[in-house]
Design a protein that fits this description.
This protein is mostly helical. It has 2 domains: 93 residues, Endonuclease Iii, domain 2 (Orthogonal Bundle); 102 residues, Endonuclease III, domain 1. It has 12 helices and no strands. Helix 1 crosses helix 11, helix 2 packs antiparallel against helix 8 and helix 9 packs across helix 11. The protein is elongated, with a radius of gyration of 19 Å.
Length: 213
């Protein structure tokens, strides 16, 4: 069994498939913008505060910028994010009749929306079989040896999507995020207890270093 198949089998068994289509598309998009360069708990707090006041593009577009800044402050870089969120709301109202666009190209035209934000929205919101590459998805396949260490975000996505087909792609983002939080951490990964260390290049080269930490 090759590395990719072992990885997807492990993710399916340990974490299962994520639910898609349950969060309103607009709220998912805005939450993902808020998640940029911050921790999950900060995203959750900022999203809750914002959506308790306004949760549609119509409502957010009417809020003063300073009010949005105050509501999303826990997410960090809140001034820039507030500006993006206000602009996104207005563009969606003007150009898309209040609905979040369904294509990667259209999403990435929105202020503050890059590869990851677009792919998270498509995958979790619209059920599109794409792989969103965040820090965990960008790091773990490189450690294992599935993706070249020098690959950029878009190259990682293309490589993974060439190797993982169909519904299996839904396993990758959420599964690797949780795996990266629990075991394959950025610093001091728990290599000796990792269920995937048998297929991991990183462990083979350096895993024993972490046994006594």
């Amino acid at each position: 069994m090759n590395r990719v198949k072992k990885l997807t089998n492990f993710l399916e068994k340990r974490y299962g498939y994520p639910e898609t289509g349950r969060t309103p598309h607009f709220q998912l998009l805005i939450s993902t913008v808020l998640s940029q360069r911050t921790r999950d708990e900060n995203t959750a707090k900022a999203s809750k505060q914002l959506f308790s006041v306004a949760r549609t593009p119509q409502a957010i577009s009417k809020l003063p910028l300073k009010k949005i800044e105050k509501l999303i402050k826990p997410s960090g870089t809140y001034r820039q994010k507030a500006l993006h969120i206000k602009k996104i709301s207005k563009i969606i109202l003007k150009d898309y009749k209040g609905r979040v666009p369904k294509t990667r190209e259209e999403l990435m035209k929105l202020p503050g929306v890059g590869y990851k934000t677009a792919d998270v929205t498509l995958s979790y919101g619209f059920g599109v079989k794409t792989i969103a590459v965040d820090v965990h998805v960008g790091r773990i396949p490189k450690r294992i040896g599935i993706v070249d260490k020098k690959a950029n975000v878009e190259e990682v996505r293309k490589i993974l999507e060439s190797l993982i087909k169909g519904r299996k792609r839904f396993l990758v983002n959420m599964g690797l995020v949780r795996f990266g939080q629990e075991i394959c951490k950025p610093i001091n990964p728990k290599c000796p207890e990792c269920p995937l260390n048998i297929i991991c290049n990183y462990y083979k080269k350096r895993g024993c270093v972490y046994e006594k930490r």
